[in-house]
């Protein structure tokens, strides 16, 4: 079974984002960028499926600036076999990403596409679902466990009330949640080896997709500053204050 793993280059999760002075977006100048954490989990899951003998090939794909090549090299160093970079300037919205991925799915015919449940920059949580709709493939979202037997893919999903297990018939789409696995670090020899793994370069036009935005960002602002706390003398005063706020009965 061939696996397709879309990985997005995003602002590193350890960086505290700064909003641009003019409120048009987040300042990305000189900011550390990394692979979206949920996508690292997707790459790890794909590698584990290959180690179990379920997957035969792992193809990583990224849509974004030329620098997204670094993100793909990370996926290759972790264990992906080859990569496709679709070079697009500016922000590419989830619908355009899903359309490009649909074209790649048509071309590559993967048995499973494993995406992150959301990109931590736009927090959209849309691409996997849109890709499932566009390809007409079944989807198992927010996976905390994935098992594959033949063309049956069992996905345990983290839902509000607990865990739900669904059975999908491959080819299918899976999106990863945080508890699915703990991604490995790439070893130095594998980082070196990744440099010579194949990386194809494409454009959205190659897939007939127009990536011009359909949404307009009106304003981006910092969250309100937290006001200072108040020290209370004892529990009675704390309870009284909570009652006054309507928090305690
Ligand atoms: P989103 O719907 O934007 O929250 O993204 C969900 C998932 O879709 C991500 O975790 C990635 O697996 C995939 N994805 C979104 N944007 C891109 C992109 N530009 N390139 C590759 N994969 C992407």
Automatic annotation (TrEMBL):
Function field: The electron transfer flavoprotein serves as a specific electron acceptor for other dehydrogenases. It transfers the electrons to the main respiratory chain via ETF-ubiquinone oxidoreductase (ETF dehydrogenase).
Example of a GO MF term: electron transfer activity
SMART domains xrefs: ETF
Superkingdom per UniProt: Bacteria
Recorded name of the encoding gene: etfB
Cofactor: AMP
A biological process from GO: carboxylic acid catabolic process
Domain Electron transfer flavoprotein alpha/beta-subunit N-terminal: 23-211
Pfam families: ETF (PF01012)
Designated name of the protein: Electron transfer flavoprotein subunit beta
Organism name: Edaphosphingomonas haloaromaticamans
Keyword flag Transport: yes
Assembly behavior: Heterodimer of an alpha and a beta subunit.
TM region(s), chain numbering: none
Family indicated by similarity: Belongs to the ETF beta-subunit/FixA family.
InterPro entries xref list: ET-Flavoprotein_bsu_CS, ETF_a/b_N, ETF_b, ETF_beta_N, Rossmann-like_a/b/a_fold
